[in-house]
């Protein structure tokens, strides 16, 4: 040690002090400086401590020149209360050793926060720790304490104390002391850094003087021996400290000095016998807040594995708060104090301590406040659920929290938003764990299992926070985490060329949304100014880098894409800072140096202008903007931008010239209105442009139509006092603008008029462009105040209004060139104006009559719809009230204006005549049914009116049916009260319409009836139904068969006669089958099939003669359809016939197919003949289920076709039948095997259930509670399958036995009583109830009877006593019998297998006559599925 230490001084008998360099004197101890961590910056992702070639000496380490390090002073800030957050726990508990660093995710930095944590390693201290361990056997680091000094305890009992310059100040203790006391398990430094307390693994406590390095006290009786000291901390009072041991007890240590003697008094605050205390945290008020109501109190937070306590130690011991703390058994509780500024609801901001405590993944925050009544209260603030388990929890500052999880990752969390700001991987630090102290291995491990398990990851003494810094003790190094200054966070992103991320982070600093901000001082304005300058600096750098390091020159599209990403960033941030001078000054000048960059810059301005985010541009930039868009032929985009710009930033001459050259009419209006306050000049100029287009006689282009619409909107805005297209005209200009527009519209000639110009050219132009819309503009203008009767200028307004009307009449009526529709629009407009209450305009009434005669001229067949619409609008507007209505009606009917006629008839309430209007109008005749329904259903019509409409409808019934038969039928059935026969008679001379009407009737009835509840209307006269079928046979014979199969309501005999008369074969066959004449139906269908075969033969003959117009495939398909119908007929009825009758059905069909096959063999092609043979095989396969196979074979062998003895011709038929036989035989065998297998397993399960032993729940009766070992020789015991056990006599006494059919039945008393206490006291006897029975003299089952000796007996109390049951028991018994009656599943299986085993040679098996399989209750009542055509 002489080589590595300067001197060993024996100070006194109290201990040994090892001093360092003389330069680290007491003067340095009194400096109130913070630790500085500017030594080594560690990479944020991963770091490694390099290995040295040769270990340095301690002298060389101590003589190194190290820079001091400062800790940022913490500042208090608002602490917001938020609701509980929740997230699932995704990380499992990890083993006690550090997690393996390979294959794990590294540190995480979020782009919106950047790098917040600055990670440095204290190189000098780390080197000295390693040197002390290697050269003087100081051991590995085991505990740490931080204040103005850093004290590190080792596993060999030494304590190394370093000053702020990382110089070793004291080496306290010795290895000999470590051998006696064990490792240093905990350290604590008081507020003024004058005393150090050290706790050891074997329970001793030492106090050291940090000013002299002397040992002041050695305390061996502060807590029970045999337990390690886990925590020891000074309170604000330098004479009091708190310690806890591995036994879970907490003690108060009071230091006194009496008569020169240093003493220590210990008081137990919490005994470990009530639950081990895992951690303690005294509240330090004096070092943080100088003035606080609780400064005279000593507040202590403690936590066991299941509860958190807050107690007041002084002035007296008082429990202030407790809370249950649940968590995983492998995790420890965590405590952390912090003073924060809290904004109350109704109070000013207060500075109070907040305790954060956690276990597993839940963190809770509680405020400790001093109330006005002198009491300390604890108020909950919030809680956070984290997605990982914790091993350490510390405050970084009042707004952020540091949480370290079980995988040794540090998470920086914002308390207010619960947002994770950054993650730092600490696995390479090799964190020091104190698990050996929690297990108390140095004293024999005499701790509870819960304490030992939870302490696997204890790191209380290796992680500590001090003034905004987090100090972490590793096995070979000492690390410090600090919060970077805001500017440093930006600089890091800038160095990494992440300019967008740096700008986004700077913007969050600017608007106050950033988290964990350090180093930004002043009020909001000063902070914004500081950050704004930094943003501009970053922006300039970003632009320079983007211009220099873009894509390869020449790749135009890549360059454009590159600058399209850069320019919006510049615009956004300059807009945010309101520094357009920078945007259009230095930044634009930089982009101008590249033509592509300049173009992209100008194009990127467009969306900002259109969204009114950029309304002012310098004239130079605006000139370049217009020139650029003009060059790229995007002038219409310029127009959209101009109307959003401040006119002062525009070059008027340039913009106006551009707009006229390219037809940018909105921009022209905007420039004149905003720049010159001129609303008339653009109107006159644009009307001349539109007039030239209208008078040219050519169809208007889209551009010209757009101009006309814009002018109509512009005129409407001006006459309403609104600016175009948005906003309002200045109030001092409204009157002059309106007068100017009216003067322009009513001007007699243009300024450059010639001799050919018509009068009122502007008005004429707008009327020719869109008469209706222009008149609508005038109608809106007439609503303005100057035309209102209460207006101050009413007389002048009325005069102007009359003048405009006179001009309109002069232009449109007294001249030519306007269509009837346009004239009609004019008179509709006039009629509406005259119909108003305040009407004072005068129009010659004769003009209206002339207009009516002009519109309703029957000789004019052109523009019929247009003329009718004009007249209809005129009538609706009330402009023809003075015209003779009868004359008007006559004119309308003569011109076939049915809508006008309807309107006039409606006024006269002649609704039956309206019906004729609908019928005569081709465009609206289908709406006649809706009209009739409305009239007949609405209450506003009188009964005579309804009768008139009904009568008119019946008179025109044929027309209604011709329009829609279904709708007509619905009217007759639903609306009209006439009988159906009467309506049918009206159609007797038109059978086709009669059929369509009846079709509509029955379709409507089918649609409005259901199988569950048919309506009464669906019950019709059978004669009508048969009439409909007869008509269907005439007009749609192919649908008859399907119809009669799916409906009812007709008489069988009469319908049969009808279809026979009409020769509908398939329908006749179906009705014969329904009548029971199966053979008759079969003969008809067989004849139909024969006809199909003859058709096929004829087709073949025509094919031979050279006529190839007929395809045999079509005939085969038709024959196949007929064959399928016959087969279905035979299958439906075979089950009801005996063997000869079945043969009479199937064999003629087979004969026909086989005979036809002989005839067609030589005529059909091979593929057609194979198709025919498939049909024959299908007949054979279908009949095998109904005809015995021998009979089928005999029939085939007797056929003349096969009498020649050629087996090859019948080979396929026979092989097909044999395949069918083999298939059915295999299916039967497989079914029997499955039944046998099922029977075996059923019997096996029953055997196992019977053979299973029963285990009594206890050795005494559940009724009398007597032990079975004391029963007599003649007593028996019943054991139920539920485990309950009773004496038989006890069951008798309790009424749990009964005699049923000569057998003694027992019921479990416990289970029976439980069921009786259920709802309603109803017995619900199920198979799951526990019964035991004793039959006659056999007594109880052997496994249910127990003698005194414990052996099973056969005899029992076999008394055949009849037990009387109450009515409730009798009812339950009857219910049980009914539910259990009938054969069991096992009996059914036995019966089925027996049938096959008795007659194994029989193909279908043998079933005895008395078998249960033949009983009615067992039979399956099946029916074949309905056949489909």
**What's the overall geometry?**
flat
**Count of distinct strands:** 36
Annotation field: number of helices: 48
As an assembly, this protein is single chain
Radius of gyration: 54 Å
In the sheet with the most strands, the strands line up as: 1-2-8-7-6-5
N-to-C terminal Cα separation, in Å? 113 Å
Question: Ranges with pLDDT <50 over ≥5 residues?
Answer: 1-53, 55-98, 1010-1018, 1317-1362, 1401-1405, 1420-1429
Strand content: 15-25%
Helix percent band: 40-55%
How would you classify the helix and strand content by structural class?
Answer: alpha+beta
Q: How many strands, what sense, and barrel or not for the largest sheet?
A: 6 strands, antiparallel
User: What is the typical, i.e. mean, pLDDT?
Assistant: 77
Describe this entry's structure for a reader.
- Helix 8 (499-510) runs antiparallel to helix 9, helix 18 (702-720) crosses helix 19 and helix 32 crosses helix 34 (991-1007).
- Residues 1-53, 55-98, 1010-1018, 1317-1362, 1401-1405 and 1420-1429 have low confidence and may be disordered.
- The longest helix has 45 residues, at 1207-1251.
- The chain is 44% helix and 15% strand.
- A hairpin with a 3-residue loop joins strand 5 and strand 6.
- The chain has 48 helices and 36 strands.
- The chain is flat.
- The protein is α+β, with helices and mostly antiparallel strands and 1429 residues long.
- The strands form nine sheets. It has a six-stranded antiparallel sheet, covered by helices on one side. It has a five-stranded antiparallel sheet with strand order 3-28-27-26-25, with no helix packed on it.
